[in-house]
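re: ur question from yesterday

yeah so i grabbed the chain u mentioned. its 150 aa long if i counted rite. heres the sequnce exactly as i have it in my notes:
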Amino acid sequence: MIDNRDAQLQKLADQFSLVRKAMVTKYGGRMVHMTPVLSKVLMIVGSEKQVNIKRLAALLLVTSGAATQHVAALEEAGSVKRSMSPQDRREIIVQLTPEGHKMYQEIRKKSHLVLREVFKDLDRAELNTFIQLMGKLSSKYELDGGKNDN
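ran it thru and got these structure tokens back, copy pasting raw so excuse formatting
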């Protein structure tokens, strides 16, 4: 067991890096034929069903302008569509197209296979512990995407 917190964090970073490298080697680094950031945008839009640019930018940790460019690229590819919010005509809502939904499902399926591979050596109790720990960490960093701005 490592007692020094900095050494623990370095060990954790090293282990995450090794797992990531193994998965990139095994699965070729990409799950679909698009850049990782566009794949991430597609996954966010798919999981949210519809999302405004401000929230998308917050989830991507980029500016609204950068999020708009990513959406434009996906729109040009036919994966998403933009429309005005019925509640606020200044707000742009992004949703998946039927083609985008197919890609979203394909990425989800492949992601599940990768996760199955990554966690295959953990038993049910270990996996539940990992899920609880990740939940504890992720709840600290949940974003509201401007929903609670004052």
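noticed a couple things. The longest strand covers residues 80-84. also The chain has six helices and three strands.
anyway ttyl
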